[in-house]
């Protein structure tokens, strides 16, 4: 949703054009305090990482609560377990980061987290071992926690969070003002298709009515007629026996007519003809 920033600029430009200076100031203040970061996934992930790295539990919970009310709570029911799993993974990353910090705040931050989250996490089996974390000297070497101290696991959590936010923002219904780009692209595509079809139709009409088109068609027909024509044997499907029999009958008929022509019957004149002579 990178076009959100462009829409923000359009709104600000319009407010300045109308002379709404006080509204512009309020608009700029809201942009600075924008928790959604213009729906830029990378900025949101960076903000969450910041809360984790500085061990700001209140900021992390507040920010996640904002995302939950804005986006996650509107998702379908079957998606909620995946969202909750990512949330708890971020809490575990928070504990791992706090446990690795130096300066004497390690156990303090871990204990603070467990005490504040006790009511929410104590009834879940996956969190039972985590309440022992403040009392383990080297948790990164403990079989129960070693996986969470690896870079691969932490990166997988951030990638999952990034993919979740990207998918959700892509599917979110948008106001009319922010959907102008898609509408403009669709209109441009339809206009191009109409122009192409109109040009094709006009060209076909020109080819049918113009003398050049008529002459070109005559030339095509002339080429076809002037070329070698295939010889078609109408008797190719007649069996040879039938063809020989027909020839014999034709010869016999010609002989019979020849005999009749030379016979006295054919050469005799009728009495009527004699009387006329």
From TrEMBL:
GO cellular component: early endosome membrane; late endosome membrane
Alphabetized UniProt keyword annotations: Endosome
Annotated ranges, domain ARMC9 CTLH-like: 54-171
InterPro entries, sorted: ARMC9_CTLH-like_dom (IPR056327), WDR91 (IPR039724)
A biological process from GO: early endosome to late endosome transport
Subcellular location: Early endosome; Late endosome
Entry GO MF terms: phosphatidylinositol 3-kinase inhibitor activity
Family: Belongs to the WD repeat WDR91 family.
UniProt-recorded name of the protein: WD repeat-containing protein 91
Gene behind this protein: LOC106114075
